[in-house]
Amino acid sequence: MRHRLKIRWAIVGVAVLAGLWYLWPTVRFYSMPTQERQTLEQDDPSGFERLKGSAVKLGLDLQGGMHLVLELDDTERAFTGDERRDAVDRALEIIRNRVDQFGVSEPLIQKIGDDRIIVELPGIQDETRAKDLVQRTAFLEFQLIAEGALVTDQIRAVDRGLAGRDTDIEPSTEAAVPDTTAGESEDTQTLEEFFDQDGSDAVPVQDGTDDGRFSTLMQTEQIGADKFNLLVEENDVPTVRVILADSIAMAAVDDRYEWLWSGQSRTFADGRTYRTLFLVVVEPEMTGEAIATASAGFDPQFVSQPIVTLAMTGEGASTFGDVTGRHVNERLGIVLDNVVRMAPNIRQRISGGRAQIEGFDSIEEARDIAIVLRAGALPAPLVIIEERTVGPSLGADSIERGRRAGLLGLVVVALFMIAYYRVSGLVANLALVFNIVLILAALAAFGATLTLPGIAGLILTVGMAVDANVLVFERIREELDLGKSVRAAIDAGYDRALVTILDAQITTLIAAAVLFQFGTGPIKGFAVVLSIGILSSIFTAVFVTRTVFETWTQRATASRLSI
Amino acid sequence: MLRLFKNANYPFMRWRRAAFAISSIAILAAGASIAMRGGLRYSIDFTGGTLIQLDFEQPVEVGMLRGVLASLPGLASSEVQRFGDPSDVVIRAQVPPGEEEDFGRRIEAQLRQSPELQDRSFTVVRTEAVGPKIGAELKGQSARAILYALILILIYIAIRFEPKFGVAAVIATVHDVILSIGAFSLIDKEISLVVVAGFLTIIGYSLNDTIVVFDRIREDLRSMRREPYETVVNTAVNQTLSRTVITSGTTLSVVLFLFFMGGGVIHDFAFALLIGIIIGTYSSIFVGAPLLVEWKRWIEDRGDTTPASKTKKKPQTASRA
Predict the structure, then answer these.
(1) pTM (predicted TM-score)
(2) Residue B192 has pLDDT above 80, yes or no
(3) Chain-centre distance of CA B61, in angstroms?
(4) Cβ separation B204–A500 shorter than 8 A
(5) Which member of B101, B201, B269 has the closest CB to residue A387?
(6) Does residue A530 sit in helix, strand or coil?
(7) N or C: which end of chain A has fewer CB within 10 A?
(8) Which domains does chain B have, with CATH numbers?
């Protein structure tokens, strides 16, 4: 008997030590003042990582961050099963690569099902940037820009298409009605004026009252003898987009060409802001596959101008040389995801395979573009089908609230147990506290994540874990009522209650397992805490307390039990 | 020594018909409430849509925000709700397909520009956007999860006890889930993913309670062989009454703290548990155990009219543990 008890105490001792051992980093890490934490991170990065790694991880809902679910966009084209799987696998690799280069600590990038990808980015501050980084297709194309008469022909083709349309194109938003008379200034002119000047084979310009007409929405900016930029005032951009997407309006347009927008808009002397519209050759001269690497920096000439420098592969460099050699004095558009980033004029054949993209709002944008260009293009566009973002302040607030609610709950339950079961209640309370230590230690040891519902689960466990002790104690009381000795009552109480406890807890475990299967991040966290809580409560509330009681009944004086 | 329900001997089984009537009425009321409201109110987790949570520096009037949103293009149909603290609000909107992504940011931008909110500073602390497709999938998954949990538990209890115990326990649990859902409908609360997690927890908890009672019935059936079935069941319910009430009490008290102090997201979850614990406690006494008695009587009645009853076998002895 004494020998058996010793073994029991040894087990309890090991559990206590293991519990404290695994819990210690968590306590240390989260109780550290922010400043001290930062100092440690700078002075001893590996030690910091070790400490952080062995502390309980907090879910996105507690530390703040972004959860995205992406799906292959099959609105443009259909995928076969194999293509789909292949595309998703490649996209997964590319996104992982991008996120790694972006430098997010502990990201989670995972495939779920056949065609979905989960991306979890803890501690992200700038959601838009992060989303762009993950979702940007980064499909780079070098496309020739159509010039002069070709452009005017195509504009007329659109005009004809529009005229043949029964109903007017409605602007997609309540954008301003196209303003055709204003906007004349030194460096811009209306298309009509341009045609008049040009005079050559201009189709008579139809009267400008036709509201949705394409040409009336354009201004031109002369940039060379036979070259001009088409400018659309920012307010008219939505209308033009609608026209460009309209199949009837575009019916007469040559399908070897497509209309693409510039990335940035510019403000002219008339105080208006315009976006450039390019007519480009659909068939690209080159694609992003020619790019070996990309890096962000500042333009050596205009120091404040962020740029991305592209270095091409050997093959890419020779193709680039050929292309530029063949098209001297033409413009070559650098098109990223169907936006014309730049349209430089080719002055001479470019060898050496270097090119440069400019026109970024900030150096961060240039860096992000460089990352996506390095990591490569996604095999197909991805759409975000689910997005959840939690700010860090909300997470911290949730932890604080959970802690307060939990502590108060614990105090109330503990007081009740002492009031109702006296010394035995005290023993149960010790087991309860031990239980909480073990749950958190187990979370840390298994590298599981604590989420907000997980905290709720922990608190719920406090309420439910005493159940095992209540069952045992009520049973012991009954046995004592029957006139059994203290030792016999304790034995009978534990033995009889154990079956009940196991049966009852296993059903809860089944529910928790189903929850784990079904749930997403936060709910999985709840299921994990609930499951660990059930197992550890059986250990603490049954094994540990019984060891205490049996040790006590070893003494000869144990004739009365405070229960 | 403090002791609740010492030597309790309430005639629970005699009240069972009344309890069945109460439960039936409650279930009908739950159904009526759901029907009258034209179905359950699902959160954007299931319908798809966008939600943003704003944390204002000072308490903010929901009515004023509604006014601001109503005047903004495309946002008139959005819902504004206080969320926990007086300075926190949640705005929900159904979003045209394809625009889910940027909707949160658009709401934010438009609110920041509106003159009424110029002197109020706020931060966006949470945004959620769920596509309609994924929402519909989650709905199916949730329903399946609840169904699978019930089936697995039915199998477990049927093996550990007897099939009829399993069926009775599952009926009692389904009863709890229906009434909990009904409670959400009655006070027009949204059913979200977290609430479904709450329902699944209720399944676990309510069964826990029922099984403690069933376990005692099984034990008493062995020790009280000569007593009528109904008496044995009634005794078992009374013997476990103090435990049932104490455990429900401790669990309920921690859930109450969660409910009142846990903050917005936990609030609905805690509400589901709160309702579930109360109904689960009721059902383990008034639904689960009485169903066993009914089942037994039904078998006996049927036994009397079938040729099998002509054998001299006494019905009571048929109840093996």
Answers:
(1) 0.78
(2) yes
(3) 32
(4) no
(5) B101
(6) helix
(7) N
(8) 12-40+135-318 (1.20.1640.10), 49-130 (3.30.70.3400)
